[in-house]
Amino acid sequence: MGNSADIIKEEKGAEEEVPVKCAKNGWFVTDKRFYKRMISLTLPLAGQNILTYAVGLADNIMVGSIGDLALSGVYMANQWYTLMSHFILGLSNAAGILATQYWGRKDTGSIKTIISITARFLAVLTVLFFIPACFFPGWLLHLYTNDEEVIGEAVKYLRIVSFSYLFYGVAQLLMASMKCVESVKICLYTSMISLVVDVLLNYVLIFGKLGLPAMGVEGAALATLVCRAVEMGVMIYYVSRKDDRLRMKLSDLARYSKVLLKDYLKYGLPIFAGSAMWGVNNTAQSAILGRLGQVGISAISISNNLFNLVSVGMYGVASATAIVIGKTVGSGQYELVKKYAKTLQILFLFVGAATSGIMYLSHFLIPVLYPNSSAETMKIAYQLVLVLTVMCFGTSYQMSSLTGIVRAGGKTYFVFVNDTLFIWLWLLPMGFLSAFVWHLPVWAVYAFLKSDQILKCFVAVVEVNRFKWIKNITRDNA
After folding, report:
1. CA 403, CA 326: separation in Å to the nearest integer?
2. pLDDT tens digits, 179-200
3. Which of 38, 135, 136, 152 is the one with CA 20 to 30 A from 453?
4. Is residue 403 within 8 Å of residue 318, measured between CB atoms?
5. pLDDT at 78 over 90
6. What's the rounded Cα separation, in Å, for the pair 91 and 122?
7. What are phi and psi of 448, to 5 degrees?
8. Is residue 239 within 8 Å of residue 190, measured between CB atoms?
9. Distance CA 256, CA 275 (A)
């Protein structure tokens, strides 16, 4: 890269090519179209995340109005769903890494085959999670907590909500297929519909409106079940009838390729394993935190829901980054990839600072959203929000850099190895010691369990700027 305005060709959408200008100092992409592209991807993805988390928050607020016991029960029941979602996200991300690079080559046939292969794994996975949740919920919940009252409430919720797992898996796979071809607005619209359905049904079923009996936590579970079914239905309709990029048909689910299966396992298995490992980590952390009492569990539930809403911007940026980096690597524009990576790192820092500020301000919402929570619960929740305020800055940089740049660029195993080392050599040992040996307060235990978000920044800044992660993993005539 030489003079003040080197021109590099970049594909825009699926058809035309437009020039992208890079600054002569090598750090910034100066062309406004790059930023418009990032915004056009980030806003719908962030909006979708807001609405998705708003569904959980609606459950949380309405159930919380019943009392701390019901809130704790639903929170613990959802830990199994959270574990499953990590596994499903791993499969979807594994497909997305390959598919996005093939989108850079405009090879939609290979993308359909990748989706078909993923669907097979997904079907097996959802059944494996459904069976224990539906038939052995009590045994399952003892893995997370020893509070029998909490388990009693959680069982009521889990038996019903377990039927939503298949619907959720199908919807997430279809959303991932649309994201990899930059058709992201449908994900936002689907989440809008999902939120409206969930809020209305929660209100009616939890509190017994329109002549129906008050069902409490069981009503919340039934509302979630219907919500997930609607979500899946909307995505199936759009992908099969309205989408003009992939043009998926039911017959495409029969596609198969040994070559692409081999690539899926080679490059996708580390992504799946990393996501699954993170799910196991969350399960282990929940087992630690779940033994800190009902008040502690309720406070963690509140702070986590606030974090989920506040963090949508940085997760949207990370997802948009993965799409842009993956597509550009797939199209073979490696020098442009380096320019993007340098510019995006600066963006991650600004997003992290803004997210941390919003996270701190969110503590004012605790008494507004959870007026029936005890004073002790609110106090601990406020302390946890302060912990998350610090962690948000690190999360924005390291997560976006490692998953949005390094992993999407083709070095898929690095995030898995890095996460595994942090989980087993630092997070879980320190969490166990702080909770059961040193008997530290809830906020301190929580801080140890989130501390990797800061520590990983040192790994990310070195790995990203070495540029050894740039690897085209597509094939000719796959």
Report:
1. 11
2. 999 998 999 999 899 889 988 9
3. 38
4. yes
5. no
6. 7
7. -60, -40
8. no
9. 24
Distance CA 362, CA 6 (A): 44
**Residue 256 pLDDT class (50, 70, 90 cuts):** very high
- What pTM, to 2 d.p., does this model score? 0.79
Residue 186, token pair as written in the block: 């449908």
Cα 393 from Cα 391, distance rounded (Å): 6
Going from the C-alpha of 160 to that of each of 27, 166, 206, 219, the distances in angstroms are: 52, 13, 14, 9
- Amino acid letter, residue 79: Q
Q: For residue 478, with 0-12 CB atoms within 10 Å meaning exposed, 13-18 middle and 19 or more buried, which class applies?
A: middle
CA distances from 196 to 166, 189, 203, 204 (A): 21, 11, 11, 12
Which residues, including other chains, have CB under 8 Å from residue 8's CB and lie 6 or more apart? 19, 20, 22, 333, 335, 336, 339
Given a cut of 50, is residue 426 above it in pLDDT? Answer: yes
Q: Tokens 């948009």 identify what position? A: 320
Check: CB of residue 270 under 8 Å from CB of residue 416.
yes
Length of the chain: 478
- All residues at 6 or more sequence positions from 269 whose CB lies less than 8 Å from its CB, including other chains: 94
Q: 252 is written with which tokens?
A: 């495409």
* Residue 410 dihedral angles phi and psi, to the nearest 5°: 125, -15
